[in-house]
Structure prediction request, 376 residues.
Amino acid sequence: MNDTLPRWMDLGLLPALNLAMALTVASVVVWAVGLEPLAVMGLLVKGAWGSPSGISYTLYYSTTFVFTGLAVAVAFHAGLFNIGGEGQAAMGGLGTGLVALAALQWVPGLPAAVLVPGMVLGAMLFGAAWAAVPAALQAWRGSHVVITTIMFNFLAAALMGYLLVEVLKEPGTMDLQSRAFEPAARMPGVHELLQAIGVDWPATPLNLTAVLAVGALGVSWWLLWKSRSGFELRASGHAPAAALYAGVDPRRQVMLAMVVSGALAGLVGVNEIAGVHQRLLPDFVAGAGFAGIAVSLIGRNHPVGIAMAALLFGTLYQGGAELTFEVPGFSRDMVFTLQGLIVLFAGALSTVMVGPLLRVHRRLARRADPVAQGRV
Prediction:
């Protein structure tokens, strides 16, 4: 009898059960502090999906989580645990900002059709380059990628702080921010596109980087499951001895996985810097790189699952922000508690339900098997 769950259970039913357990425990916590769980959950969903503005903010947050979730997943399939998404996203923002500031100083007047793709490319290159160093240290020197990516998160924060204080800070202000980009250096907002075709939509931070996120999901799926490079990457991660015997270079797979992972995380900079702030800021990532670990775990490291998990976390962020205004006594810490419970059940306790599901699957298989039932 097979001791592994069928794919539909592993990728669909198991994450749903883990989420249900997390929400159940969260409801008990909400009830314990004197609030009505069903009312709180209803307001959370309404705040995230009950209005055009709420939908836009939810999708805006989800866009960032798609990039950081994919960054973790691609590295995971190569047997690597990339927890440097925070720093790689920050460097993506730096690449985005440097392209815009360079254009502002040296070639002002560039059209958006040239400038915006250049900012996207800058974000991907800087994120990939920042991830390539820990990858090379593991591939050629044996340094563990978990340790080096943690260190590089701090290095990225220090580098960003130094540049904003000593090099890029807007003259005449004490704020840690660069000068504003020119108008062409901006990712167009989704509301502008909808208004252009006659749809009335409120102005929100949601921008066309969301389209890049959808494209990133599709490209990641193709790369991992439909390309030769993806097959070699997964083989190197899940069966390294067999992959090496088949002639797959493990160093190349480490570099490929981390470079792609860093490029994906770097696109967070496009969503935030080019799409919202239009200037370089410190700490704009705000923990999204670490949230990407949970997104990838909940999504079972598959692009479809990551898309759904990113929408879940976008719902929690936007709906939780609305709850802090609508429900007296519901603080932002309660939202973090709910997120923590989801991470707990999707990560540390993700295998709790595997045994019961296996027993149910075997029972169903025996019922469907006439030989096992003695009918033939």
